[in-house]
Give the backbone structure.
Amino acid sequence: MIEFINVGMTYPNGNVGLKNINLTIKESEITVFIGPSGSGKTTLLKMINRLEDNTTGEVKINGKNVKDYNIHKMRWDIGYALQQVALFPHMTVEENIAIVPELKKWKKEKIDARINELLNMVGLEPEKYRKRNPSELSGGEAQRVGIARALAADPKIILMDEPFSALDPITRANLQEDVKKLQKQIHKTIVFVTHDIEEAFLLGDKICIIQDGELVQAGTKHEIISNPKNDFVKKFIAFKNFYLKRRNISN
């Protein structure tokens, strides 16, 4: 479980990034942070693995303040997939996936088996892709490898920062569906950032709408659709019927 308790962020120049965030993220669910650019959603996500540090309040994982963990070990136990896949260009697919397991000193046989398992899981044939370089991959293939790398050491928490926003619509839709199917197998605690309400409705067990550094509303898609808190939320769901019918995500 992840908790944000009265969390705020003020930058050295005095700008306020986040204001008094209180939120509980349940285990084995997909929680989506959604809001316009600059709203603070990515900053909030990065506080979980301390790529950003809160200036007030507490962020806790399993009841322990994230600042009390060994930062390196904590990050090894949290998977991270982002928009710019950031695969190491001089390393093959298998070498990219193996980074954290090697840091955790897994045995080679275990790493090899895990690479094959993960590539199959994300829909890439191991025999075909293990030895490829990132330059030989399409955008969708690279993002699948990025997801495999995030899962490599079997972390309980996965952070996903707009991982599909740079992809074409068809590839993006396919990967969204694959993440839904994958979650049914792996049951991870996934925190997902997007600015796309359709993506949020499709993926999120819980949706957190953020505006100007504040958590405006949190709930299931049905709770938000049936009872939007203010006009800002209403604008986000203005085309809900179109979205829900088009992707069949009303249930």
Q: What stands out?
A: The mean pLDDT is 92. The first helix runs from residue 41 to 46. The two ends are 25 Å apart (CA to CA). Residues 119 and 128 are 10 Å apart (CA to CA).
